[in-house]
Specification:
Length: 178
């Protein structure tokens, strides 16, 4: 699934920055939910728009942090199967990683492709969440974060795929990174 010790540093900084953006989103959600809870408990006055904000923020956070999660080998996968295969057939794990990367490329490519018109619709039609006159939040910024996160995840899958194909065919990985 992964690469050697060297990585493309500029892209790593980019995925890390997206991860930080996601972390800030988590902090904003925690702050908003706590204000809402304390507002309800102490003043019988909830903070308007918290459910709408949290619903949109969760999606944005997942996509903002996905590429860095993959980059740091913390993406979801079945280690039980991989570890069993690695004991019997060590070379097969690299082939499984190639299949995993190809699947990741296909899935993120499809998601990106079908998310583009959704962004356009949300801008053209002015989609928002909430209740007019009380609280509204536009949907398009989340759609932009989905596309950026999806593109970053696609790129990370591609970098791992190239690295794993070079390993599979016996080429030096260092030639790719230099």
């Amino acid at each position: 699934m992964g690469t050697g010790k060297r990585r493309a540093p500029v892209f790593g900084i980019f995925t890390y920055s997206l991860n930080v953006l996601g972390t800030l989103g988590i902090l904003a959600m925690v702050f908003a939910v706590n204000l809402d809870v304390f507002g309800r408990a102490l003043f019988n006055s909830p903070l308007p728009g918290v459910p709408e904000f949290v619903g949109l923020a969760i999606v944005a956070i997942v996509w903002a942090q996905a590429a860095d999660t993959l980059r740091n080998h913390r993406f979801i996968r079945s280690d039980v199967l991989v570890n069993r295969v690695a004991k019997r057939y060590p070379g097969a794990v690299l082939f499984m990683d190639v299949i995993f990367n190809l699947n990741g490329l296909a899935m993120t490519g499809v998601i990106f492709y079908f998310s583009l018109p959704l962004l356009q619709q949300s801008i053209d039609r002015g989609f928002y969440r909430g209740t007019q006159g009380i609280f509204t939040i536009p949907v398009w910024p989340v759609k932009v974060i989905i596309l950026i996160g999806c593109a970053a995840l696609f790129m990370q899958f591609l970098l791992f795929l190239v690295s794993n194909l070079k390993k599979l065919f016996g080429k030096s990985e260092s030639a790719f990174w230099n």
